[in-house]
Structures are given as structure tokens and as C-alpha cells.
Design brief:
TPR repeats lie at residues 63-96, 140-173. This is Serine/threonine protein phosphatase 5. Keywords: TPR repeat. Residues 211-518 form the SET domain. Pfam families: SET (PF00856). The protein is mainly α. Among the domains are: 60-190, Tetratricopeptide repeat domain (Serine Threonine Protein Phosphatase 5, Tetratricopeptide repeat, Alpha Horseshoe); 544-620, no CATH class; 632-778, Alpha Horseshoe (Serine Threonine Protein Phosphatase 5, Tetratricopeptide repeat), CATH 1.25.40. It is 51% helix and 10% strand. The chain contains 32 helices and 18 strands. The strands form 8 sheets. A 3-stranded antiparallel sheet has the order 3-13-12. Helix 15 packs across helix 17. The protein is globular.
Length: 780
């Protein structure tokens, strides 16, 4: 890409950098004309889109090598490595390798099923056996292994059927005798334990909650369109649910999350049939993403002819794959990428997402309809994009159209008109794309042994933290109509591919429903929020958080007054400029309760007797004392270097008593120089709590965790979801200590999660069920 940029004439770069949406056709046409006669561009397109250069296709040789390595690992009882090798072999194995009786893919599924059974993953083992049988219904080893898996799960009726089919199709007498022995053992086990032969079901259906409140889309001055409530809405109400118009997994999650639903990949992940790029959590997701599956028609296979009727019906039910019967959408988002070519892997995720939007219309050669439909419904930020981004969007648009023409085999015009439409789509994606996030609980075990003056406790305790994992990007056309606020009144979350939006506070009739585009009060200070939103989305935020005084923005980066007994905040010029602007438009003395925390930090001095008070950087907002900010900065920087060392030690799990002692001294230094509510102190308290937890010093860890939570409650609302995430950590420490205050923490977590996620709370964050169970088991 840099080679292409360097070759573009400077005059054309300037024209693109200065262009508006009205100039796009001209600038796109000029750049396309240049590339048409530029050999390195043509070579790059060939390497990206020509199947001859494909690195992501199927390869029998590569699959066989991974299979052989998997066999070696299995022989050495290295089951985790064997599992990985067989999965990689499945990604590379062509489905048509071998006949129906010796199919490589079917063999790999059975090999992996054997590993999964060794790892006590019986449900996953069962699914892999079924996949093998859908390819080779007469595969005796697959039926046998399936019977063993069903027996492990207590599905005795199915296990007996599986073993009977295995015996029927097993060609060797020794094999038949082995299966007969297994059948006898299973039947004896059923009799001796009086086992119930009804099979267990392992399906977990999502809560089918749907929005009940009608919203209105109305024009708003300076904001375009916005969603508003038609009635008073109570907290925790589900107001919107929507499937994506287009979705893409982020590159860093390709090995860990399903490429269709973006859920965690199970151990028995399913590869794409035609290429080696995606992995799916099930055949259902694989079919929906690629639109293809390998089908066996039972009536064409001789296995059914010699079986009793009831056993034949059982076999047909197993190999027909129920989820393949579901209706498949006409547009499969991965189908046009599914040739093993390189461009879907190499190009940025946002560009591949643009390709998925365009591909919806390619079969009908109506590619421009994609842009027309989106332009009517979504805004874009082209005029606010920096020159470098405009140039990138031009180049990527031309590259993408050429790649799609190769991959889809559809001839369409690549010219100034079509390229400009793609540039607009790219700019629309930039401002309307939503990041799909998953909540993940990270469990931490205390270390065992001793070091320094900190004797480690037993390593049986377990503590947990909440991590938000970014897994994908998606376009939700209606979801994009919700505007931003740094103090949002709604919360967006995802279950599988579905976007849900829920209110977090009472919303009055006619009031805007606003969510956070990322930055919010408490997470970043005001200046950083404003800069980020202008750079990323092209607008100057004027929400209440950025235009009205709030405690969080005042204290976020504030310094401590030199008077140790004063609770006033000392601000630098950067923060003070933002707060002065707010004070100018929002008289604090007329709108804030005089018992409020905001008076404790001294903001009332901005307005006395109706006249503005002149406040300068470095002077306390409450008592007016001067603070040497240069000296305070030096002390804080020194402390932060030490805290960074502790963070690195936590990541490496190499925590020493010296590191903790140094961090405690640095925390004291931060408290002397920073305001008590400064976020850096909260972060330091949290890091020390984690380190002490690793060291087994849970009582001390709990105290520092509580201190961090108390500061965050000043920066955020006390019932903000961020507080719930921190309380998860605190409650897990309290549970490890058998501290009955864990009950209060868990109750707070439950209340906040119910407000933010409603009936979906347990699905979004299953760890909640564990916390409730521990509360019931330990505290009556």
C-alpha cells in the first residue's frame, strides 16, 4: 500500500486531500486512470485476488502433515496439542479427498472426537462423530465413538443404538466382537444402576425478549436524525433489537471466536468447506456464513437396507443434520470471499466489511444500489476526514472493486462513479460502524509458597475480573440513528449477532435516547473526549457531559491542594479551559445542591455574588492556595514509573515483595500530590489489589479494591455498569475470604446488571450465576 501511495503524483494527492463529496467522481476517476497504467498496482491485485496465488485454500498435503503430527501428539498423550493439530488439518483438508469409505475429513473428525473424549469433552466428541457420519454414514469407528460419548453423557438409549449400528457396519469379526463386549458392558451398567434410558438434552435457548416500546425518528438541529421516546420509559426497558446489515470479525479474534455469530469457539470448531480462513462454532453458523454444506442422501446409501426399521430411522435422523434444514438466506456474507484468495485476510476489517455490503448486490449487478440505500439512511463524514484518510479510502475503494470483480466473476464497471460510491460507503462505515463486544470473566488463582515478608496463602482461592473483548464490527442501520452522549441514558450490548439497546435511567416522553460511542464521563476527561469524537466522528460534542459542569471532569486529572486538610481541586490549564467554558454557560451556584461533592472540590469560587472569579492554573478551586504543578508532576511521574513496573510484573505473574512495597510507597506519593478522586489513584489501588491477590494477601487486596471502587463511584454514577464490573472483582475476593459483605456486593451487581441487560444478564455474563450460587451456598 505504501508503494502505491509513494507513486501517486503530489498534485493528485493534493486534489484528493482537498476534495469534497461533490469532487469524488473526478478524483476517483483520476486515481483509477493512474493505477490502470501502473504495473505494481496490477501485480498487487493479482496477488490479492488470483486463486493461483491463494495461500488460504485447501491442501491435502498440508492437512496430511497436520494429521500426522496430531497422531504423534496423541501417542504421546499430549491431547491439547493433538486437538490443535487435528483442527488445523480440518481447516486445510479438501472435503472431496478420498471416497465415501476413506474420506480424509471424516477421518479427521473421528480422530479429533477421540481426543475430545480423552479430554472429557463428551458433548463436543458427540458432535464431531455426527459430522463424520454426515460425510460417511457407514463409518463404523464413528458410530462406535459416538456410542461411547453418548454413554458418558448418560444417553444410554442412543448409545445402544450407536453401538448396534457400529456392529452392523463393522466389516471385521474382531471389530464386531469388541463392539459386542461394549454393548454387554453398557447393558449391564444400565441394569445395575437402574439407569433411565431417556436421553438428556443439552440445548440452551436464549430468552426471547422483544422491545415493547415504540420509538420515533425525528430531525434534530445539528444532529441530523435522532431516536426519541414517545412516552415515559422506565430504567432497564428494552427499546431496540436488530440484526446486522453486515458484520465482520476482527483480525485478532479469528482463532478464538466464531466468524459468523462472534461467540467463543468451542473445542470442536468447524472450518469452512471451501477455504481455510474462517472457523465456526457449529455447522449452522458455517452454513449461514458460506451458504454451503456437504449433504448425504440416506436413500442413496446401502447402510439402511439391512437395518431394522427403527434402527434405520435412527441412522437417518443422526446423519441428516437438523440445523442444515433451516432456511438459508439468499445472501451469504462469506461466499464471495470463499476461494482461498488473500484479499479477505490482508485488507483491513472495515474494507472487507464494505466488500460484504457490496456483495449483497453483486449477483444482480446492482452494486450501486448498496451505496444508494446506505446514503439514504446513514450519514458519512467525508468532508471532515483528514487528507491522509481520504487518500486511503480512494485507494482501498479501487483495490476492493478489483478484488470483488475477480472473486465474484461478475463484470461491472469500475470507474469514477462506482469508486466514489464505495468511498462514500467506507466513510459511512467509519462513523456508523458499531464495535461488537463480549464480556469475559478472567479467573485468577493465588500463587502458592512464600516470598519476602508476604507469606502466600493457600492457592485454592479464586478471584475474577471482567474484561470487555472487542470481537467484531457491524452496521446496524436503525441502531445508527441513536446519537451520542458522554452521559448516555441507554446501553447497547450484543447476543450473538443481535444488537440490543436498553434504557439505564428514566427517559421522559420526547427525550432523546443517547448512547456512548466509546468515550464517556468517568472514562476519559472532557478534552480527550472532545478530541476523540471530532477526530473519529467529525462532530464537536455538545452533550450535557461536555457542556455542563460535573464532578468527574473536574477531579479526573486534578492535583491535591497544598493544604492537607483542604478537599479542593487544583487544575492544569488544559482542564481549566474546559471547565471555565462550562461555567460560562452553566452557573454552578444556581444549579447544584450546596451539599454536593462538587462544592467540596471548590467550584463555587467560580461564581461569587454574581461575578466571575479569576482562577488560574495551579490555584486551589476551594481555598485559593498555590500549588507548584511542576514539582507535583515530577513526583507523580516518578510514582507512575514504579506502578508501571508492577503492572508488567502482574502480566508476567512475577510479583515480588519488593515490587509490592515499592508500589505501596508510590501510592502514598500519588495520594500526596493528586486529588483524592483522581483516576490515577483508582488505577493504582486496583493494580495493588491485583498484586496482593496474586500474593495471597486477600485481606489487604480487598481493602485496596474497595478504595478503588469508592473513587470510581465519584467519577461515574454509583449504578453505572463500570461499578458492577469492579464489584465482580471485589465480591470474588470477599467470597474467598468468606466475608459476609460479599452479599451486599453481589446484590449491587445483580441490580446493575438487571438494569443494563434485563433478562439477558445471565446470557451476557454467565459468571453471575456462579456469584448467586456462592451467595446462597455460603451466606444463608
Amino acid at each position: 500500500m505504501e508503494t502505491l501511495k509513494a507513486a501517486i503524483p503530489e498534485s493528485l494527492k493534493r486534489a484528493i486531500g482537498d476534495s469534497t463529496v461533490y469532487d469524488l467522481r473526478s478524483t476517483c476517476s483520476s486515481l483509477h486512470s493512474f493505477f490502470l497504467h501502473f504495473d505494481p498496482f496490477q501485480q498487487m491485485i493479482t496477488e490479492l485476488a488470483d486463486p493461483k496465488y491463494a495461500l488460504c485454500g485447501k491442501s491435502k498435503d498440508d492437512a496430511s502433515k497436520s494429521k500426522q503430527l496430531g497422531n504423534q501428539c496423541f501417542s504421546n498423550a499430549d491431547y491439547a496439542k493433538a486437538l490443535e493439530c487435528y483442527t488445523q488439518a480440518l481447516r486445510k483438508a479438501p472435503l472431496d479427498t478420498g471416497d465415501m469409505e476413506s474420506n480424509l475429513v471424516a477421518t479427521l473428525y473421528v480422530n479429533r472426537a477421540t481426543v475430545l473424549h480423552k479430554m472429557n469433552l463428551s458433548v463436543e466428541c458427540l458432535r464431531d462423530c455426527t459430522r463424520a457420519l454426515q460425510i460417511c454414514p457407514s463409518y463404523a469407528k464413528a458410530w462406535y465413538r459416538r456410542g461411547k460419548a453418548n454413554a458418558s453423557l448418560g444417553n444410554y438409549k442412543s448409545a445402544i443404538c450407536d453401538l448396534n449400528v457400529a456392529k452392523s457396519v463393522e466389516p471385521s469379526m474382531s471389530g464386531k466382537r469388541k463392539i459386542e463386549c461394549e454393548l454387554k458392558i453398557l447393558l449391564d451398567q444400565c441394569k445395575s444402576t437402574s439407569a433411565v434410558v431417556q436421553d438428556k438434552k443439552y440445548n440452551c435457548n436464549a430468552v426471547g425478549e422483544m422491545p415493547q416500546i415504540k420509538l420515533q425518528c425525528v430531525p434534530m438541529q445539528d444532529k441530523g436524525r435522532s431516536m426519541v421516546s414517545s412516552c415515559v420509559i422506565s430504567p432497564g426497558s428494552l427499546v431496540h433489537a436488530e440484526e446486522p446489515y453486515a458484520m465482520i470479525i476482527l483480525k485478532q479474534c479469528r482463532e478464538t471466536h466464531c466468524h459468523y455469530c462472534l461467540n467463543d469457539l468451542p473445542a470442536d470448531r468447524v472450518p469452512c468447506i471451501s477455504c481455510s480462513i474462517p472457523l465456526y462454532c457449529s455447522h449452522q453458523c458455517q452454513i449461514r456464513a458460506g451458504g454451503k454444506m456437504f449433504r448425504i442422501h440416506p436413500e442413496n446409501n446401502g447402510i439402511f437396507k439391512n437395518l431394522p426399521t427403527d434402527l434405520g430411522e435412527y441412522v437417518a435422523e443422526v446423519i441428516q443434520c437438523n440445523d442444515s434444514e433451516e432456511e438459508i438466506e439468499d445472501i451469504s456474507e462469506h461466499k464471495h470471499e470463499c476461494q482461498g484468495v488473500n484479499w479477505p485476510v490482508v485488507l483491513p476489517s472495515e474494507i472487507v466489511l464494505a466488500g460484504r455490503i457490496l456483495a449483497r448486490f453483486l449477483p444482480n449487478s446492482c452494486m450501486l444500489m448498496a451505496s444508494i440505500l446506505l446514503t439514504q439512511e446513514l450519514s458519512h463524514c467525508y468532508k471532515h476526514m483528514p487528507a491522509e484518510s481520504k487518500l486511503d479510502s480512494h485507494i482501498f475503494a479501487i483495490v476492493l472493486l478489483n478484488c470483488l470483480q475477480h472473486s465474484c466473476g461478475t463484470m461491472f464497471s469500475i470507474d469514477g462513479v462506482s469508486i466514489s460510491q464505495v468511498v462514500e460507503i467506507i466513510s459511512q462505515i467509519k462513523v456508523n460502524c458499531m464495535t461488537v463486544v463480549r464480556l469475559k470473566s478472567i479467573d485468577t488463582h493465588g500463587l502458592s509458597g512464600h516470598f519476602g515478608e508476604f507469606p502466600f496463602q493457600s492457592n485454592t482461592h479464586l478471584t475474577s475480573t471482567v474484561e470487555q473483548v472487542r470481537v467484531g464490527k457491524a452496521i446496524y442501520k436503525a441502531g445508527s440513528l441513536f446519537n451520542h452522549s458522554c452521559q448516555p441514558n441507554i446501553h447497547a450490548y450484543f447476543l450473538s449477532r443481535t444488537l440490543y439497546i436498553r434504557t439505564t435511567e428514566v427517559v421522559a416522553a420526547g427525550c432523546q435516547l443517547e448512547l456512548s460511542y466509546g468515550p464517556q464521563v468517568g472514562l476519559w476527561d472532557c478534552k480527550d473526549r472532545l478530541n476523540f469524537l471530532e477526530d473519529e466522528y467529525g462532530f464537536l460534542c455538545q452533550c450535557t457531559g461536555c457542556s455542563e459542569v460535573n464532578l468527574s471532569d473536574v477531579v479526573f486529572n486534578a492535583f491535591h491542594c497544598v493544604n492537607p486538610n483542604c478537599s479542593g481541586a487544583v487544575l492544569e490549564s488544559r482542564a481549566l479551559d474546559c471547565e471555565k467554558h462550562k461555567i460560562k454557560h452553566f452557573p454552578v451556584t444556581d444549579n447544584v445542591d450546596k451539599n454536593d461533592d462538587i462544592y467540596e472540590v471548590g467550584l463555587h469560587v467560580f461564581k461569587q455574588n454574581g461575578a466571575s472569579v479569576h482562577i488560574r492554573p495551579g490555584y486551589c478551586l476551594k481555598c485559593g492556595s498555590y500549588c507548584d504543578l511542576e514539582a507535583s508532576h515530577a513526583a507523580v511521574d516518578k510514582a507512575l514509573v514504579c506502578m508501571k513496573r508492577l503492572q508488567d510484573a502482574i502480566l508476567l505473574k512475577e510479583i515480588s515483595s519488593i515490587a509490592i512495597s515499592d508500589a505501596l510507597r508510590s501510592l502514598h506519593l500519588l495520594r500526596l500530590n493528586l486529588h483524592a478522586y483522581n483516576k490515577l489513584i483508582a488505577e493504582a489501588e486496583d493494580n495493588i489489589a491485583q498484586a496482593l491477590c496474586f500474593a495471597g494477601e486477600l485481606q489487604l487486596s480487598m481493602e485496596h479494591c474497595k478504595a478503588s471502587v469508592q473513587i470510581l463511584k465519584k467519577l461515574y454514577d454509583t449504578d453505572d455498569i463500570v461499578i458492577a464490573y469492579e464489584l465482580v472483582k471485589l465480591s470474588s475476593i470477599q467470597l474467598s475470604l468468606d466475608d459476609d459483605t460479599a452479599v451486599d456486593s453481589i446484590n449491587q451487581i445483580d441490580d446493575i446488571f438487571s438494569r443494563y441487560y434485563g433478562l439477558h444478564a445471565d446470557l451476557v455474563f454467565p459468571y453471575l450465576q456462579y456469584l448467586r450460587g456462592e451467595k446462597l451456598n455460603n451466606f444463608h
